[in-house]
Request: fold
Amino acid sequence: MIPAEISARVAEIKWHHSIDLGHGIITPGQDNSPRKLSRLKLPGSLSGKTVLDVGAWDGFFSFEAERRGAERVLATDSYSWNGSHDWGDKRGFNLAREVLNSKVEDRDIDVLELSPERVGVFDVVFFLGVLYHMKHPMLAVERVASITREMLILETVVDLLWCRRPAMAFYVGDELGRDITNWCGPNPGAVLGMLKVAGFKRMEIVSGLRPFWFRIARAAWWKRKRGFGFRSLMRTDRIVVHAWK
Ligand SMILES: C[S@@+](CC[C@H](N)C(=O)[O-])C[C@H]1O[C@@H](n2cnc3c(N)ncnc32)[C@H](O)[C@@H]1O
Reply:
């Protein structure tokens, strides 16, 4: 595909991820995917590993796993790939895979349907930006644990940061980011607790809470850009956890 054709097709799609497609073309995603990648602290090499990317959307992290040498990568999703909630669809993933000449496989399946019988077991599982969309978070973590052989990399929103005990906020409406698909905000203790209950033996928060000034700046930015509630943004942050079986 020539660069002009790639650019034209990119322009037809609503993107989530910012994917470098070469020829100076970067998909105009709302997500700062390279910055998120730097917080994930992925293993430098995934050579010989099988990787499952749960909730892959446009596939930025699936393609990154392939780039790091994974032997097999499966991208799964359902919600955004089916055009739900005006989020976009699967055209971004399909186009990026074609342009990058990628062998990443895909499967349309809900998180709660994941099981060894349905998808198999993977050495490394990515569960990025999905937990807080789960109405049944513990069940989702159990499903993800069931298909993880060695290591889980989990990235999520966290809430109730002042609470010392494991606790979880339940979003009845669009309280978090004016998005009715956000259901829960566990605090870091609850994230670690759920992973432990789901059978992980060792957990490490590899990217934790950002400094207070960062949260103020971020809350002010989102309030100005989209009118999000300043206080609810100040209450939340995001963390990345590595967990091992
Ligand atoms: C915030 S996006 C995160 C995308 C990507 N993993 C990342 O970190 O940039 C949440 C993703 O989870 C998916 N998702 C939400 N609920 C889901 C469900 N019940 N089953 C499967 N995927 C789901 C959405 O379709 C969307 O692609």
